[in-house]
Design a protein that fits this description.
Helices cover about 35% and strands about 30% of the residues. The protein is an alpha+beta fold. The chain folds into three domains: about 5-70 and about 105-180 and about 270-350, FAD/NAD(P)-binding domain; about 185-270, D-Amino Acid Oxidase, Chain A, domain 2, CATH 3.30.9; about 355-400, no CATH class. The chain starts with a strand and ends with a helix. Flavin-adenine dinucleotide binds near residues 288, 301 and 304.
């Protein structure tokens, strides 16, 4: 097969991670992004960027473009459904320049990243799916499918930023563990709520959790439901579901008119991915392709952005030395693995204690949330971790959360 094009770098996947990496590399190298979707589809959900993701965007020289897309929130108030305030998590106590959440609509973020990538001369091939990669002595060749045509590209290095079901990862035969997370979610966008000025709210009860976060011109709602319950919920009807949301937070009742059918609500069954090696000769993986995680810490996109900002430096060094071996690329994996593993584990733990039907776990989760909210040092430790600013809890901190 003849080669359709040669590039320094081919990135498979034009999500947040692939686009941010492509943008950072495109001012020095020729970069092609292969994207399976035909276009950007407007998201029906929100995405919270935290201190680590905002810091990575700053390093990638993108924060100035992204900041106007989101709404800043420094307080997340946790209520028991039908009950009192359990905790007011105050992000402004973090000793960090980005001591807040920035919540935006992910398709808006993609639009800006794409625009910036294209301005730097990067190319995107849409409606194009990665099929396989073959390693040659001095390059890597990729076979892709666009409509009915099979095309081939060559590159010095390929990056798999193609999400939790990564085909690049499968093609590299890397040892991988994938499991479905026990907590499933529904997402939707409602009209704006005046009461959510600078704050977000999460309501929970045993086996139930609902979040209301402000985004530009609207309110992002997520609703947890245990695995296997979606058919029952839909069978009860959309009006019953909207009434349930309004019973939890009465102020939302007049704001749900944009949600006119189940098509306005996205159902997600998230996966958790861990991979034995993140790199191979002339290949690296980033983002959900290597560490998709339970969404309870709202960290997936943030960690993807951190991956991108580290991988840029490693790839530059590969070009400087002419060495694209797994050994050389390992520096990237070494810099990122510890924090991503820590956050994956903590997210699993939080999910077990907050989105749970288990009586004891629910009671324990409430105790930990109350205790964290009452003690500023503990709240600082918890928020520092959940905002992606550390890769461990000290033994003392671990004990203080529970005793
Ligand atoms: C319920 C839920 C809520 C979340 N909330 C948050 C949050 O508040 N904050 C946060 O930081 N994270 C959150 N996340 C996680 C976040 O959405 C992901 O971690 C992030 O989008 C991962 O980015 P990525 O670029 O690695 O992968 P993706 O965004 O999945 O992008 C992968 C891209 O690759 C393309 N692709 C796939 N296969 C191929 C192929 N064969 N060929 C070509 N292209 C291909 C896809 O079309 C896609 O565009 C949430 C996730 C879930 C499930």
């Amino acid at each position: 097969m003849t080669i359709t094009g040669s590039y320094d770098i081919v990135i498979v996947g034009g999500g947040v991670g692939g686009l941010a990496l492509g943008y950072a590399l495109a001012n020095k190298y020729s970069v092609l992004i292969i994207e399976a979707r035909p276009r950007i589809v407007p998201s029906k959900r929100g995405l919270s960027l935290q201190a680590n993701g905002l810091e990575a965007l700053q390093r990638l020289d993108l924060l100035e473009r992204v900041a106007p897309l989101g709404v800043k929130t420094s307080h997340v108030a946790w209520y028991e459904i039908g009950g009192n305030l359990l905790a007011d998590l105050d992000y402004s106590i973090l000793d960090h320049p980005y001591s807040y959440l920035l919540t935006l609509v992910p398709s808006e973020l993609e639009r800006v990243l794409r625009d910036q990538f294209s301005r730097r001369g990067g190319e995107i091939q849409e409606s194009t799916s990665f099929r396989e990669a073959v390693l040659h002595y001095d390059n890597v060749r990729l076979r892709v499918q666009r409509n009915t045509s099979s095309l081939e590209y060559s590159a010095s290095i390929i990056v798999g930023a193609d999400g939790e079901n990564s085909r690049v990862r499968n093609g590299l035969n890397l040892p991988t563990k994938i499991r479905e997370c026990p907590d499933h979610f529904l997402f939707m966008l409602a009209r704006p709520l005046d009461m959510l000025q600078g704050q977000a709210r999460q309501y929970f009860a045993r086996g139930k959790m609902v979040g209301f976060f402000p985004v530009l011109g609207g309110t992002y709602i997520f609703y947890y439901l245990p695995a296997g319950r979606i058919d029952d919920l839909r069978a009860r009807g959309l009006d019953a579901f909207k009434t349930e949301l309004a019973n939890i937070m009465p102020e939302i009742s007049g704001k749900l008119d944009r949600v006119t059918s189940w098509d306005d609500i996205v159902y997600v069954a998230p996966k958790r991915v861990s991979v034995g090696h993140w790199v191979a000769d002339r290949a690296a993986l980033l983002g959900d392709a290597v560490h998709a995680l339970d969404p309870s810490w709202a960290q997936g996109a943030n960690m993807t952005l951190q991956d991108s900002s580290v991988l840029v430096d490693t790839i530059e060094k590969c070009f400087q030395s002419g060495d694209f071996s797994a050994n050389r690329l390992k520096a990237y994996e070494n810099a990122r693995r510890k924090q991503t593993t820590f956050i994956q584990r903590q997210s699993d733990r939080t999910a077990r204690l907050t989105t749970t039907e288990n009586r004891f776990n629910y009671w324990l989760g409430k105790q930990i949330i109350r205790r964290t909210a009452r003690n500023k040092t503990l709240m600082q430790a918890a928020l520092k971790a959940s905002a992606g600013l550390t890769d461990h809890f000290s033994l003392r901190e671990q004990l203080r959360f529970i005793i």
